[in-house]
Amino acid sequence: MALPMVDHRIVPAANCQANSQLPEWMKHEELTGTTIMAVEFDGGVIIGADSRTTTGAYIANRVTDKLTKVHDRIYCCRSGSAADTQAVADIVSYQLEFYSVQTGEPPEVKVAANLFKEMCYDYRDQLSAGIIIGGWDKKHGGKVYSIPLGGMISHQPVAIGGSGSTYMYAYVDKTFKEGMTKEQCMEFVANGIALAMVRDGSSGGVIRLACITEEGVERKTILGNELPRFYEG
Amino acid sequence: MRRILSIMSYNGSAMVAMIGKDCVAIASDRRFGIQAQTVSMDCKKLFEMGPRLYLGLSGLATDVQTVANRLKFRLNLYTLRENREIKPKTFMSMVANLLYERRFGPYFTEPVIAGLDPKTYAPFICNLDLIGCPMFTEDFVVAGTCTEQLYGMCESLWVPNLEPDDLFETISQALLNAVDRDAVSGWGAVVHIIEKDKITTRTVKARMD
Fold it and tell me: What's the first-to-final CA gap in chain B, in angstroms?
């Protein structure tokens, strides 16, 4: 005798039948669709991101700051669920502060990266977070680590992430070379993100850049009218 | 990243029409995209249906093209039979009829019509839903994926009896600022100002993100 099959789907409260009259923009999770990028140079790293946060197709925030400080010389670029990445970054920044008090010196970038990895891997089924960590430490200089969905960690001299990154792979492969100066890296990151912003609907707004070196963190914003422009067929 | 498929926002579009003093304006964005990806930025969504009659079609891109072609076919036959230009209100009924024929398997497109009466030059705008329910107003009509943003912009900016140049500014600002809050429309804008003796077409420089 076949048992009746009952399909109990777990849905968020906003999407259940009782809430069916809610407007569209209340039914979608807030995501940072995003384009993020980080590149090492001799003496530090340049990190960059777009500034768009979407709820479905509605742009909830068009001037978001996706470059989040987790320590004085360590930043992370966030992509995926806005809530998940903010929560993880808060926890890691607490853990790093505690660690730096215990050791008495600033943490290495790879320590920060591994703390992120621990969270992203252990809670991989509940989280939707793609993170790039970029920072400077005394022992290793500028370092970039990439932690995509699932929680794998890898060190790369240049890392790209987010939904807009697919439109940048060829540009990065063609343009990147070891030994670029700080200014060349800034231009490389700005151009890459600008290219992605044109093609990806989930990326846009302004380009936020940060240059992290021994001296400190220098932040820069490229506004809409100053964006690099390319062929617009 | 998985996305919930919604047919009306698969391609993304935004359009608006407004009434001014002895003129009408119709504007749309220029993006052709497939969900999040932008494929081209010169997509035609506003179609000239008569010397003073424009039709804008929002929604699924394939239905935009099909409906425009089928409507032009019917309109050509009408013009041959009647030997005169169609009135905008009659054209609205023609569009409504074409859409309602497909009541239970509709075209996924919501039209916007803007034009001047061929004899009296009275301004006329209207929009319809995807199964052909017409709605005409004396001020403005909107369609597309960012209608809520467009309604907000139009309610704030529109005033009656705008001259053609002022109407152009108003409709452009309404469209540009609305699409800047929508991830699937924008990437350029085109505006037609229809007056009794001329039509001015302008392509507006917009944010390309």
Answer: 19
Catalytic site includes residue A103: no
Neighboring chain A residues of B209 at a CB cutoff of 8 Å: 50, 52, 197-198, 203-205, 224, 227
Full-model pTM: 0.81
B35-40 mean pLDDT? 91
For residues B199 and B189, what is the distance between their CA atoms, to the nearest angstrom? 16
Residues in chain A: 233
Residue in A59, A198, A227 nearest the CB of B183: A59
B176: left (phi over 0), alpha (psi -120 to 50) or beta: alpha
> Euclidean distance between the first and final Cα of chain A, in Å?
62
According to the model, what pLDDT value does residue A170 have?
96
Which residue in B has a C-alpha nearest to residue A228's C-alpha?
A: B208
Residue A182: closest CA among A84, A44, A86: A44
What is the per-residue pLDDT across A140-172, written as a single tens digit (0 to 9) for each? 999 999 999 999 999 999 999 999 999 999 999
For A:105-124, CB contacts with B below 8 A are none
Question: Which backbone phi and psi does A31 adopt, to 5 degrees?
Answer: -125, 150
Hey, are the CB atoms on A57 and B12 less than 8 Å from each other? yes
| Residue listed under structure tokens 């252990």 | A122
Task: Determine what percent of chain B falls in helix, strand and coil, rounding each to the nearest 5.
Answer: 30, 35, 35
User: Is B159 exposed, middle or buried, given 0-12, 13-18 or 19+ CB atoms closer than 10 A?
Assistant: exposed
Which residues are CB-neighbours of B57 under 8 A, at least 6 positions away?
B45, B47, B63, B64, B67, B68, B109, B110, B111, B112
The CA-based angle A51-A57-A59, given to 5 degrees, is: 35
Q: Which helix (H) or strand (E) holds B17?
A: strand B14-20
Tokens for B194? 């229809």
Helices (H), chain B: 61-82, 88-100, 147-157, 164-179
Of B36, B40, B182, the CB nearest to A200: B36
